[in-house]
């Protein structure tokens, strides 16, 4: 079984396990059956990225922790082993890209923000290879601000205040003539935040139909029954008295509407109306992230059907309510949000007392579930100095998993929907559900009988390096052509692939860290073709747009106060900021322990390779013929020589010309490994292996074929150690080295034990002021929570 088959097998095994979910309403319904089958076959993944901050100056490090969970129950996953993290500018151009190793549901890393970056707002996004099969709107995204203090700050000219984005959303998706309905609206300004505009709906005779204004975050709703022969538009007025017009969604002459209302505390009533003359019945299907699926059927009376839904059957977070007509075509859909009761509580108490500069801070951290029981939790913690540059943090792991990750576009102040109290919060939440509906699948895909295979496989063993074999003259793909990827060095790595009908090849790179030199080549018999490597990063983007960058001149002093510590850190602590934890990787060659190994220094040195084989490598037979050398290996299990040529390697690079093998200078070779049996590399089969390793692992002057592709390639990121000084002795505390850190601590893998207890320790810097700690965490069973707080650091008076 090759690696690709193992990958597919692992995927379907995990999908089967994840697919075991509770289902209510077990009536025989083909829509429910198809959605249930879709869920069982299509695993949804989610990534949440905890960034240490959201405001940076160029020259600082951006630290991050990636939580990797399934999209239904939010339990940590171990399927994909690689996450891709990128930083984009306002034109969707990637300015930074990295690949991060995932293990046991998480991954950690950092990015240096170079001084080549211009000042502005940037978008951080993260995804896996498997997530490329979904809409890019499903990727994790978070805006950050970077200011380059080494360049003159050139702010863009702000557009006229009339550049508002105003959209209208009929409940269920439709406005239908003569049917009552609700229309939600969302008003957004150039900053990306909601604005407070006054509005009025007018008909074609300029008669006022309804007046409206937002309730909160620029969102609200109004009732509208489209009358016969009427056309509608909205006129809006801003705070300065300027007006502009926006059209309302088109009115259908015939169709369906749905209305969802609270029925007491424990139920929802869903009312479906239609003007379709032949309509006889409708279906209502509800689900929460493809789980808790329920299908109900109602006959229409007076073109109306009514459903009652017990809220207990809905999962926490966002549920989809979809109406299908008799032929099982979806006609209406809307969302409903259920506040979570099942959540993680995190508490952090400063136990070291009042803090001054260069003093040890100790926090006792406890984690509990909603019942007060201890919860073993994986936490990430950032501790940084508060200033007027750093905005209030929002968008923690709980609000992301249960809210923003299931909605299209940005959500202003997502924490509000989990923390606010009072009657207003329910209406504000429902406005959000009406204006930002979205699902991660298309009903057309779910309902079709034969779904095509996914284009992108999960990277269950390691990073995929993908390429394409093409004919340079015609541009046509090469089919069934063997290709080889090697990483020259003393650690022998070789990967094989065979092109498919589209010319695509892929190499599965296990434990592939750091920058590498790659040699990718074809067998000379396929020399008419060439190889192109494809970028592993996704080239499609979400509909998200960054807010216009605007930096107040009043913040120049705080910016200078932030820039100086960055420069001091880079000047005095550069070595400490560049400490990396080299991952433990298997240094054994890809073929494992060879059948025969010869350390050439243990034998008499010969000047030519033919003498080496003849004198002390009996398993290799080299014969010179009219057209060149032929090398054969002994097939030890069958006690005869192979008919075909072996795979010959020099520091892991294949050599297909046996004459060039014989030209290798034995005096530069440290070790010779021989595999005296047939060996399989991916889809490729070889009649044995002879592998030469030079003293320096640098090919000893050998040049690969001119048609080979030589490439610098960045593997998975090597984790960087977070540096924090220790002032645990009088000598260290009295050091005259300046310590101007404003990011005091970053702990991406803090664990609480079975009693829900953990400890956080670090030392303060020379900077007094108010500091904030931000903690995000998740348990093995999918409970998520966060906690943030502040503490003071005072100056030591000598």
Automatic annotation (TrEMBL):
Q: What's the protein name?
A: MG2 domain-containing protein
- Organism of this sequence: Larkinella humicola
